[in-house]
Write a structure and sequence with these properties.
Residues 1-20 have low confidence and may be disordered. Strands 1, 2, 3, 6, 7, 10, 11, 12, 13 and 14 form a 10-stranded mixed β-sheet that branches. A two-stranded antiparallel sheet has the order 4-5. Strands 8-9 form a two-stranded antiparallel sheet. The chain starts with 26 loop residues before the first strand and ends with a helix. The protein has helices at 37-53, 66-76, 93-98, 107-116, 119-124, 147-152, 162-172, 189-201, 218-232, 250-256, 270-277, 315-328, 340-346, 355-360, 362-365, 368-374, 389-404, 410-429; strands at 27-33, 57-63, 85-89, 126-127, 130-131, 133-146, 180-183, 208-209, 212-213, 260-266, 284-287, 300-309, 351-352, 380-382. By secondary structure, the chain is an alpha/beta fold. A hairpin with a 2-residue loop joins strand 8 (208-209) and strand 9. Helix 1 (37-53) runs antiparallel to helix 13, helix 9 (218-232) packs across helix 18 (410-429) and helix 17 (389-404) runs antiparallel to helix 18. Keywords: Periplasm, Signal, Transport. It comes from Mesorhizobium alhagi CCNWXJ12-2. Residues 1-24 form the signal peptide. InterPro entries: Bact_solute-bd_prot1, SBP.
């Protein structure tokens, strides 16, 4: 499904809100996230603003590393002792909803979300037509490149095709200096699979079609072969691409330090790049994903995040949770017509997904770095949200990593990936 998106989204009418809340006694709710301390502090400040008009509701924020977030949700979700609110990746929603770990949104919230967010993003926050979460961020992938290294290598513009990508990667590689032309990521499912998938869709392919894996296509075969070509040519070094549980690590460090010429990454790492590079952040350019031999135009993979409410929480806690989330995501809660949530997201370089937030923040979204991501949203394809999606992603990660480390050929990787995906999705659908 194509994600219809434009920076000129119409300003959505109305402000999301539940009926005026009346609390018989103080209510304590908790919010589970994977955000860094400085972002948690912003969320805590927003909770304090909410408390000014809702003094009987106390919001506690808890953060865990991204690598622990889903495990925490699965082990504590549906339990009254678990977090009342959690931020989740859209890929996880089908299984969490199936297992009744998350609560359906109240009618007032569902109605507002359906009218104030793009349809594709609403769909990603829904299962079987039922809305389970309030969308907050939208993420998309683009080619990031170091303009200073390009200049040193005599490269005048970012590559537009795969042939140009391979040529630029070769010119940027300086093995004696520990410099790789093109960076690949490993040890993190999304970091491995999303860049590969972005190249796949930019080559006219798909991961899943009509609920069935499509990794046996010609376009997929060419994408696996591109990886093998880059690895065989020595323009990428898997030892430089490791990620840690916080989705940082060597892959980030090597790009920040100028040891990686190009890498495919999502918009949300803008804050990490700025923190690591300082004034040299201006050296970073953003460009569409290069088009493969079977592709017709640059495309990318997109995905979204949302906030959900624990189905096992008490009635008063659930009511307070939805009321807080309604306020947090409303235009009334933040500066200049943007929601408090959008302001928090923009502090990290993350694109907000509510239409009115996009309109209110269009000047900030037009920055050199983020504008490159906004420009590719219209042709982005959402990562498939299906039962078994997380297992499918982790399996594909393992196959791509085996290819990165030379343990399998491109043809073997393609055959293994398709066979594993068929088995996983068929089993999940039973």
């Amino acid at each position: 499904m194509k994600l219809a998106w434009t920076i000129k989204c119409a300003l959505a009418a109305g402000v999301m809100a539940l009926p005026t809340a009346a609390w018989a006694e103080p209510v304590n709710i908790s919010y589970l996230t994977h955000w860094a301390p400085e972002t948690v502090a912003l969320l805590e400040n927003a909770a304090k603003e909410y408390a000014k008009t809702n003094p009987d509701v106390a919001v506690t924020v808890r953060a865990v590393p991204f690598g622990d977030l889903l495990t925490t949700l699965r082990s504590q979700g549906g339990d009254s002792e678990g977090a009342t609110i959690a931020g989740i990746y859209d890929l996880w929603l089908p299984e969490l909803a199936r297992d009744k770990l998350v609560a359906p949104a109240p009618d007032a919230v569902a109605s507002e979300v359906k009218g104030a967010w793009p349809a594709g993003i609403v769909s990603a926050a829904s299962v079987g037509g039922t809305l389970y979460g309030i969308p907050n961020e939208i993420d998309v992938y683009a080619l990031n490149y170091n303009k200073a290294l390009f200049s040193e290598g005599g490269i005048s513009a970012p590559p537009k095709t795969w042939d140009e990508l391979k040529d630029a990667a070769a010119k940027l590689t300086k093995k004696d200096a520990g410099q790789q032309g093109f960076g690949m990521i490993n040890s993190w499912a999304a970091g491995v699979v999303h860049p590969f998938s972005s190249l796949l869709v930019s080559n006219g392919g798909d991961l899943v079609v009509d609920g069935k894996p499509a990794l046996d296509s010609k376009a997929a075969g060419e994408t696996f072969q591109l990886y093998e070509d880059l690895i065989t040519a020595g323009v990428t070094d898997p030892a430089m691409g490791t990620a840690d549980a916080n989705t940082t690590g060597p892959f980030l460090d090597n790009f920040v330090s100028g040891k990686t010429g190009m890498i495919i990454m999502a918009n949300w790492w803008e804050s990490a790049l700025k923190a690591g590079m300082g004034e040299k952040f201006s050296d970073i350019g953003t460009a569409p994903i290069p088009v493969g031999p079977s592709g017709d135009k640059p495309r990318s993979i997109s995905y979204s995040w949302m906030t959900v409410v624990n189905a096992g929480a008490g009635e008063a806690e659930q009511k307070a949770a939805w009321d807080f989330l309604a306020w947090l995501n409303s235009p009334e809660s933040g500066p200049k017509g943007a929601s408090a949530m959008a302001d928090i997201l923009m502090s990290m370089g993350i694109l907000p997904s509510r239409s009115s937030d996009v309109e209110a923040l269009k000047d900030r979204l037009g920055s050199d770095f983020l504008s490159g991501y906004v420009s590719v949203l219209a042709d982005a394809k959402p990562f498939p949200v299906v039962l078994g999606g997380q297992e499918f992603s982790e399996s594909l990660q393992q196959t791509i990593e085996a290819l990165q480390y030379g343990q399998v050929s491109a043809k073997e990787a393609q055959a293994n990936a398709q066979a594993d995906a068929v088995s996983i999705l068929e089993r999940a659908a039973q």
